[in-house]
């Protein structure tokens, strides 16, 4: 076995700056009337997403039989538990917590990372985007975020309408720009192609002068956002981009439990088609939504990438002390 380096990958100066940013974020939310919560890292439930893979844990209640236990998951975000708190009466909450995503390693990824996540009752899409812009401005000091719709972005950069484009048209667009389409993509995988074109051709150009918030994602990419009442082709989902990085993902939250169950089924079918295990579809969040989740907006912001943007780091290793491979 190769000898591991005991030293942190991040400089002490960057770690001190990280501390300052964390305290600034906490002070921002407290000043806005939010209160800080803590939710479990381990849960029987997890977000059911085609591309997000939680770290599974076999939790044994008998130390003498560690191989006999119950399946839990390290959370990909605190979303489920925080929404359960909102359904129980918490009106404005935030937390700064660890999250885990299997096999995510790279210049902007680590299996274990830190999220800032918040929810506020009464906020809609526009209030949610405004709050995210305010958070970014408070930390980055680059002015308010530019707001651009998903459709407008694709039309401006690639002269195509993402809401009506076919898979064939998107494949031709990828070929025109020299983007290789993975063999794993299905013949009609419009969403996969849109995500590929966004990641390869558009995202690297976003958010360099001022932060950019992209909103009104296609309905098929709604995740846990509700669909727009004025245009059901789009979802009330928004993301923040800074220096070519995606920093945050937020929703005007889906309130209908039965729609969530149906989306879970669809996502599990897609996971199984990719050879991935299905994830629990009927969760405590579904039960909370059936009991009544009030209208609210929520958002998850990656603290590690936020620090990267502030200090000008090129790799997440520069802003966390011990990446997974050196932990």
Automatic annotation (TrEMBL):
GO terms for molecular function: ATP binding; lysine-tRNA ligase activity; translation elongation factor activity; tRNA binding. InterPro entries: Aa-tRNA-synt_II, aa-tRNA-synth_II, aa-tRNA-synth_II/BPL/LPL, EpmA. Coiled coil: none annotated. Residues 18-323 form the Aminoacyl-transfer RNA synthetases class-II family profile domain. It is an enzyme of class 6 (ligase). Its EC number is 6.3.1.-. It comes from the Bacteria. GO terms for biological process: lysyl-tRNA aminoacylation. Keywords: ATP-binding, Elongation factor, Ligase, Nucleotide-binding, Protein biosynthesis. SUPFAM superfamilies: Class II aaRS and biotin synthetases. GO terms for cellular component: cytosol. The keyword Cell division does not apply. The keyword Protein biosynthesis applies. Pfam families: tRNA-synt_2. PANTHER family: ELONGATION FACTOR P--(R)-BETA-LYSINE LIGASE, LYSYL-TRNA SYNTHETASE. Homodimer. This is Elongation factor P--(R)-beta-lysine ligase. The lineage of its organism: Bacteria, Pseudomonadati, Planctomycetota, Planctomycetia, Pirellulales.
């Amino acid at each position: 076995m190769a000898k591991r380096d005991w030293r942190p990958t991040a400089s002490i100066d960057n770690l001190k700056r990280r501390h300052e940013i964390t305290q600034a974020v906490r002070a921002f939310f407290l000043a806005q009337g939010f209160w800080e919560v803590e939710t479990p890292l381990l849960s029987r439930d997890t977000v059911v997403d085609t591309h997000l893979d939680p770290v599974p844990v076999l939790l044994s209640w008998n130390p003498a039989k560690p191989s006999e236990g119950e399946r839990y998951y390290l959370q990909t975000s605190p979303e489920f538990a925080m929404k359960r708190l909102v359904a129980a009466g918490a009106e404005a909450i935030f937390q700064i917590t660890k999250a885990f995503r299997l096999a995510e390693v790279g210049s902007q990824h680590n299996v274990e990372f830190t999220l800032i996540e918040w929810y506020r009752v009464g906020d809609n899409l526009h209030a949610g985007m405004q709050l995210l812009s305010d958070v970014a401005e408070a930390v980055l000091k680059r002015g308010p975020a530019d707001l651009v719709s998903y459709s407008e972005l694709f039309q401006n950069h690639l002269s195509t309408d993402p809401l009506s484009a076919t898979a064939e048209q998107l494949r031709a667009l990828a070929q025109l720009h020299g983007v290789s389409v993975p063999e794993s993509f299905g013949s009609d995988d419009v969403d996969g192609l849109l995500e590929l074109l966004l990641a390869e051709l558009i995202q690297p150009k976003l958010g360099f002068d001022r932060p950019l918030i992209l909103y009104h994602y296609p309905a098929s990419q709604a995740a846990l956002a509700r669909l727009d009442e004025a245009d059901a082709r789009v979802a009330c989902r928004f993301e923040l981009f800074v220096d070519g990085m995606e920093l945050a993902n937020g929703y005007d939250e889906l309130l209908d439990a039965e729609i969530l169950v149906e989306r879970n089924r669809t996502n599990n079918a897609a996971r199984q088609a990719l050879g991935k295990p299905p994830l629990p579809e009927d969760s405590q969040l579904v039960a909370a939504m059936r009991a009544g989740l009030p209208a609210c907006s929520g958002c998850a912001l990656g603290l590690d990438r936020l620090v990267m943007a502030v200090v000008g780091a090129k790799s997440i290793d520069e802003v966390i002390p011990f990446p997974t491979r050196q932990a």
